[in-house]
Amino acid sequence: MATDVQALHAPEVKPKGGWLSWLVTVDHKKIGIMYLVTAFVFFLIGGLEALMIRVQLGTPENSFLTPQAYNQIFTMHGTTMVFLAIMPLNAGFMNYFVPLMIGAGDMAYPRMNAMSYWLLLFGGLVMYVSFISGGNAPDAGWFAYAPLTEKIYSTTRGMDFWVLGLQLLGVSSLAGSVNIIVTIIRLRAPGMRFNRMPLFVWMSMITSFLLIFALPSITVGITLLFFDRNFQTNFFLPAAGGDPLLWQHLFWFFGHPEVYIMILPAFGMISEILPVFSRKPIFGYEFVAYSGVAIGFLGFAVWAHHMFATGLGTVADTFFSAASMLISVPTGVKIFNWLATMWRGDLRFKTPMYFAVGFIAMFVIGGISGVSLAAPPFDLQVTDSYYVVAHFHYVLFGGAAFALFGGAYYWLPKITGRMLDERLGKFNFWMIFLGFNLTFFPQHILGIEGMPRRIWTYQDNQGWNLYNLLSSIGAFLIAFGALIFVVNLILSLRRGEPAGNDPWDAATLEWATTSPPPAHNFDAEIIVNSRRPLWDNKYSGEDRGMTLNHDWHPHLPPPSSAPLIFSSGLFVLAFGMFFLGSTPVLGIPIILVALAIAGFGMSRWVGEIAEDPVL
């Protein structure tokens, strides 16, 4: 008889300590939930900013926003969606599910995991404090092109808030990436070789490596920009011998891998959802996994296709054009693998499957427009136009956001123990699908007809009125779809149908424990014998998928206030640096206080490790 998976299930224990326990938790599942909630709030804020942009551009010669307000909203929309929404939503799912999917009890460094979350929250707060600081919100675009971000052109302190917030977010991402990599390499269950890991785990590991190698570039860039703005250096100011193209190289060497940092976890989610709802294993597991590795390598060889209009020269343009074409190959491999997985499968069209299939369609459209932009002659015609806006939204919203909605409907029953409503879920999908295409498909036409991006308004005689109106109507349909998701989630938490341990009849280890899981994840050590341990145990005979070792005692750390205290010190330090350039008499004392707070937090951290050297 096959191993009884129910042996892994522990009775549900209600958390103790109330909401204060969340401030000191080091449980990867609670931290994952905090990531998801915080990032979703920022996603809604970024969505409201997008609605304000579309109201402004919905009709010609509109004055809903002033030019200054438009620049601030436009800048913070892009920054929020990239750094405060999509990336941390991915991190939230990684935090919650990677340890469960590899049969681990927690992350490798639980306290560092908590620190990563608090720095995400504090980095976002630093950026948004700028809105209440007397019109000092960032106003030069999320790409912060120099020399427009130099103090001579950007005279408010908004870009300083932007730089300091990004520094905190960078430390958060680096710490989280190291934690994910070490967890996957060191804490996998016995028998879970690399070629048995779930594909979401594969994509999480590749994403983490990308972050470690890409973040130093933008860290250097924003540090030099901060020095230019506050200490009279001239790294990017041409009049003083600086080079604006240096900023573009530093930014896009991070910025293009950043696209894959956002989309690779989405690939992993789709690669988990499609097999479950097709009732067959993923087609070409090795190709899907290793094409992700190829994307990771090639992602660092294509950054200058964002710079075809800067006059790099024929040789450079040819190289980066060829590399950009080449990276479409491993991406295309995944598309065909997903389609082959569905081919002749026993398809079940539940809400996660709707979003997964929608993801494939939208991402293909974004990929095709991306290939067109990889050709320098065409790129020169549409660069800085709404064609580019349409392209990257089809990749990042049609891609990453669709996958995240699919992942939410797939995994929230495991997190909450409650099912979401299927009728509302499908209504949610159709509103977002229709609204998304109504918003962004017309922008391809706007770009080809010459509408520049980053403009505040336009004249009535350009022929752009209808397409902009359609885009604005579509944006409100997307917002309505997001509202449906919120309503569905609230109803699910209040009176949703109990999910059970494995509501989708899935194959991976996170479904082998209770919904939600206990603090220690599993009551027995899992010994993995196949890629599909649950399916093989249920359908292929005794212990073929996994066996259990009950002589196992997981060792989990106690709650700790050290990560919050240390992160609070860095939060205060950001404000000290803000004042250091303009008001040293205020900045220096704040920095000293910040270092004292951070030092106290670190001393507690070290003391806790000394008491419990296992963690």
Bin the helical content. Answer: 55-70%
Tally of helical segments: 17
Average of the residue pLDDT scores: 93
Assign the CATH class: Mainly Alpha
Please provide the ordered H/E string of secondary-structure elements. HHHHHHHHHHHHHHEHEHH
CATH fold description: Cytochrome C Oxidase, Chain A
Beta-strand content bin? under 5%
What would a concise description of this structure say?
With 615 residues, the protein is mainly α.
Written description of the protein model:
With 615 residues, this protein is mainly alpha-helical. It has a single domain, classed as Up-down Bundle (Cytochrome C Oxidase, Chain A). Helix content is 65%, strand content 1%. The protein has 17 helices and 2 strands. About 1% of the residues have low confidence.
Task: Supply the key terms.
65% helix; Cytochrome C Oxidase, Chain A; single chain; mainly alpha; two-stranded antiparallel ribbon
